[in-house]
Write a structure and sequence with these properties.
Blueprint lengths: L8 E3 L7 H6 L4 E4 L15 H12 L3 E5 L4 H11 L3 E2 L7 H11 L6 E5 L2 H10 L3 E5 L8 H19 L5 H8 L2
Parallel strand pairs: 1-6, 2-3, 2-5, 3-4, 5-6
Length: 178
């Protein structure tokens, strides 16, 4: 079970995701979380660097979709600004939103990466369908109280994965130094 919580890689932010490397792996589509992945939890403007990163991903041929547990109006507004499809109120880690995103983008599991800031939603959901999962650090420390509690559990899980040899020391330190 703990292996389902193990990301394929960990990086500091979405801006640090190596798109060329993903392309060489055969990845053609990116399912992106929204809150604390692309922008801060309470923000309503996507940082220009993130907009440029998404444009670059599309220029490289990646198809992009947002899958978020956030509200319909907020998720659709931001997705509209970015010009990408979205699945709001996704109820991750359920499989359905990931399957729907792949269907919308016309890709299969071996061609899809999930990028998000939470182990128990983004990583678990992606791994349940054998998607390539990338865990990033949250953009902001401002989050729901329950999410802050879950972060402590996530850190324990990541430490255990490191002890099992599934996560590199650098990846663990990247997350724990927050």
């Amino acid at each position: 079970m703990i292996d389902l919580l193990c990301p394929d890689e960990c990086v500091e932010s979405v801006l640090d995701v190596d798109l060329e490397s993903l392309g060489r792996r055969g990845i053609k589509a990116l399912i992106l979380d929204l809150d604390n992945t692309l922008l801060a939890w309470e923000a309503d403007q996507v940082p220009s660097a993130v907009s440029r990163w998404i444009d670059r991903a599309r220029d490289l041929g990646f198809k992009v979709c947002i899958a978020s547990n956030g509200t319909k109006s907020r998720v659709r507004k931001i997705a509209g600004e970015l010009g990408v499809p979205a699945i709001p109120k996704a109820v991750k880690p359920r499989k359905k939103p990931f399957r729907l995103a792949m269907e919308m983008l016309g890709v299969g599991p071996g061609e899809t990466a999930v990028i998000g800031d939470q182990v128990f939603t983004d990583v678990l959901g992606g791994n349940r369908l054998d998607l390539y999962t990338i865990l990033i650090n949250p953009v902001s420390d401002i989050e729901l109280k329950t999410t802050r509690i879950v972060r402590r559990v996530e850190n324990r899980v990541l430490s255990r994965l490191h002890k099992k040899g599934r996560i590199e020391e650098e990846e663990l330190e990247l997350r724990l130094r927050r």
